[in-house]
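ARCHIVE RECORD
Type: protein–small molecule complex
Small molecule: copper (II) ion
Source of inputs: curated submission
Record status: active
Notes field left blank by submitter.
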Amino acid sequence: MTALETHSRLRCACEEASLSRSGVKIPFLATLKLCSLFATVASAQSSRMAPPEERLPGRVVDVSAGEFFLRAPDTIPAGLTTFRLHQVGEILTNPAKVRAENLAPATPDHDPTRAFHMLWVVRLDARRTVDEWYRAHVRGEPTPWAIDLGGPASTDPPRTSNATMVLEPGTYVLVCHVGSARADRNRSHLLKGMFRQLTVVRSTSPLVALPQPDVVARISSDGRIQLSGPVRKGRQVIRVINETSRSYEFIMNRVKEGRTAGELVTWKRTDGTTNPSTRLGGLSDVPPGATRTITEAFVPGMHVFWTVRGPATSVAVNISER
Ligand SMILES: [Cu+2]
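STRUCTURE (tokenized, with ligand):
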């Protein structure tokens, strides 16, 4: 599937807005729960105790995505944060069904991206609420007071994807924007309820700095990717810097045995052939001028990174045995 088929962006949703479906419920905004805070702490500790290959920077916040919900802590401390996205919907429990559904064209009764989920972290200006943000989306109104920070892209489970960023205290929304730009608003995962509030409170812990990257990936003019050096096998910290004035996603795929990077760049889900790659994750969005960090344990083989899948904006990355 192409990146555009995988998900669509919020600003397009505003452009294509129409009146809300009836029956959409205004969410109950969860209040702080101590158990969630403990879950976050436990998660951060488990990351510190994880094998070196799986260690993630800062505080690890686990988010689970399924049809059509997000599970996550309600409250976390500010600072260096890695969001780790788990796919727990049908793509985990019934991947054959999801793959078959994905090959069929979209119709009013069929959404081929129903079971594909990504995470966007959105920061709200002071005094704005998640209810306001949601109502604006239902009405198709712009939300210039909500800043999209991006987050982990989709992946093939049980693999997880991750994105590291620094969070200030404030009110945030975790949301899956897949389908939000479609004219058919029945495909919007946001409107199906895939969002929740995240409150970030002041931290009493010492500041943790961003980890030193092994590789810097610069998104330059027209979405082209320039890597600072070779990507190696094992744990790699990849710093993605968007030097342009528009948002880009940043996707990493591993090419399957017997397939080629060239095939992957031109492959379409409607070709009648199987996907030449496994999705490793990446970033749902790198905002203009922003820096985001991914931590990935690579195995040797051919990979492709892209901002927009196409020859100009994809880069073949061969990871050697040494
Ligand atoms: Cu989703």
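CURATOR ANNOTATION: The chain has a mean pLDDT of 84.
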